[in-house]
Amino acid sequence: MSNFDLVVKNAHVATASDTFHADIGVKDGQITALAARLTGAATEIDAAGRWVTPGGIDAHCHIDQPSSDGSQCADDFTTGTRSAACGGTTTIIPFAAQMKGQSLRAAVDDYHARADGKALIDYAFHLIVSDPTPAVLGQELPALIREGYTSFKIYMTYDDMKLNDREILDVLALARREQAMVMVHAENAEAIAWLTDALEGAGLIEPKYHARSRPRPVEREATHRAIALAEILDTPVLLVHVSAREAINEIRSAQDRGLKVFGETCPQYLFLTEDDLAKPEFEGAKCLCSPPPRDAANQAYVWAGLSNGTFQVVSSDHAPTRFDDVKGKKIRGTDAGFRWIPNGIPGLETRMPLLFSHGVLDGRITINQFVALTATNAARIYGLYPRKGTITVGADADMVIWDSETARTIRNQDLHHNVDYTPYEGIPLNAWPALTLSRGTLVWDGAAPLDAIGRGQFMRCDLPEPARPSDAATAQPWL
Ligand code: URP
Ligand code: ZN
Ligand code: ZN
Where are the beta strands (DSSP E) in 365-479? Predict the structure, then answer.
């Protein structure tokens, strides 16, 4: 019997903290040895001259998520996980979303039914809490946290999702007691509603005015408020899809004061600007997301936030609505105002190559920062570490072997999602995964994804790091 099912030879390994040369031995889907020379494998892959990094964790993506506006999430767990694997991601964490009036448990059961038997790579679930009733806060959420759903997103905007400040405090207090992680979509709902009405009243309804309806102070105010509420309850919080300088400064200032405030940003704030929303013939709708892309100077500020450690996580916020589709961006036709255009853009497959190419190879971040931002930090924050997010003995053999000498251009026709466009069309790249391994199985060989739908496993999340002593968690310092 072979010692190993697979040995990746001559790997130039990068983790969040180290780089080293090693052979990587894999048995039964796990990394079982790291050594200068390993033999005795049924299969060998020679990675000479290539970076080998942990498979990516996309900790914010929307897959087969029901909507309330009649639009359709274009990717299900098959197309979504296939696309992710081809771009070097080996774990996704999409959202089991509670609709107002719905039981959270029912939302989770429904989401499992959507995922079961369909995924190519592994997945966990965040929850979306849109209706924190006494039953949800008193029974459902504590039970679900203990069953491995340890993080949940709350919204400060969108009429069908938003919580008021009192409800946010209720959720934060529960999260503190149960040691769960709260993710916050921070935009001021009333300001957006007022500005949207004002813009519409003046006849300014094209996609580009979406950015005008959500200027940077809208995000700053809500970010400040979310942090203040978390500070009052002394509980960690993670701000998702952070787009703008002022919000970044709020997060940085909280971190400097010693608060456990984490930040996530996304490729759209590094590679798109509000000018993309102004493209003619409704093309701007392809880049319409919330918060909106900002300007070039702001992009530079987001890049700085990656290198100076303000951000812990880069996720795609993959929210796949097709463009030329009456269940997609054109749900109300091309003359309808920006208010009616489904928010969100696709990006599962391009997240890792964009960041490797324009982050690492262009010298904006180190390879270790790349690993931390795309995999390790999310694994730690959401309770998947060290099974996921690193290359070490005992971890799942989730790895990317990079071709970092390629010269290619992003073209939607080469991608594997079920969306008819990519907002990153035409961006040049010098890196793409040559191979992606999920638990030691080749799921992307550089040419095609593996035809093995259903091999992806659901993962329960532990409590986020660092778990606090339970007496500290149950104390109520605000009393
Ligand atoms: O515009 C966005 N970001 N759409 C996806 C939903 C969300 O708020 O993350
Ligand atoms: Zn959001
Ligand atoms: Zn999202």
Answer: 399-403, 408-409, 428-429, 432-438, 441-444
Reduced to 3 states (helix: H, G, I; strand: E, B; else coil), residue 380 is: helix
Please classify residue 446 by burial: count the beta carbons closer than 10 Å to its beta carbon, then call 0-12 exposed, 13-18 middle and 19+ buried: middle
Phi-psi region of 467 (alpha: psi -120 to 50; beta: other; left: phi over 0): beta
Cβ–ligand 1 contact at 290 (below 6 Å) = yes
Nearest-atom index, ligand 1, CA of 319: 5
What amino acid is encoded at 128 in this protein?
Answer: I
**For 336-344, what is the mean pLDDT?**
97
Closest C-alpha to 404, from 26, 88, 89, 25: 88
Under a CB-based contact definition with an 8 Å cutoff, are residues 331 and 70 in contact? yes
Distance from Cα 74 to the centre of ligand 3, integer Å = 14
Among the bound ligands, name the one nearest to the CA of residue 290: 1
Residues in a beta bridge with 19: 14
3-state secondary structure of 305: helix
Hey, what are 168's tokens?
Answer: 């946010």
What's the CA-to-centroid distance between 185 and ligand 2, angstroms?
5
By the 8 A CB rule, do 346 and 419 touch? yes
Pocket test for ligand 1, best of 69, 219, 242, 289 (most atoms within 8 A of CB): 289
Token pair, residue 44, equals: 């060998």
Asked if 123 contacts 115 with a C-beta cutoff of 8 angstroms, the reply is yes
Mutate to test the pocket of ligand 1, among 266, 341, 343 (most ligand atoms within 8 A of CB): 343
**Ligand 1 site, residue 343, Cβ cutoff 6 A:** yes
To the question of pTM greater than 0.85 for the whole model, the response is yes
User: Residue 151 and residue 130: Cα distance in Å, rounded?
Assistant: 14
Average confidence (pLDDT) over 435-442:
98
Q: Is the shortest distance between the CB of 317 and ligand 1 below 6 Å? A: yes
* Amino acid, single-letter form, for residue 319: A
Q: Are 108 and 136 in contact (CB under 8 A)?
A: no
DSSP state of 61: B
Give the residue among 443, 306, 300, 325 at the shortest CA–CA distance from 367: 306
Closest by Cα among 310, 197, 314 to 255: 310
Look at residues 47, 51, 44 and name the one whose alpha carbon lies nearest to residue 3: 44
Long-range contacts formed by 470-474: CB under 8 A, 24+ apart:
473/176, 473/177, 473/178, 473/179, 474/177
Which ligand has the minimum distance to the alpha carbon of residue 73? 1
Residue nearest to atom 5 of ligand 1 (CA): 344
CA of 99 to the centre of ligand 2 (A): 15
pLDDT digits (tens, 9 = 90+) for 124-174: 999 999 999 999 999 999 999 999 999 999 999 999 999 999 999 999 999
At residue 1 the predicted structure's pLDDT band, cuts being 50, 70 and 90, is low
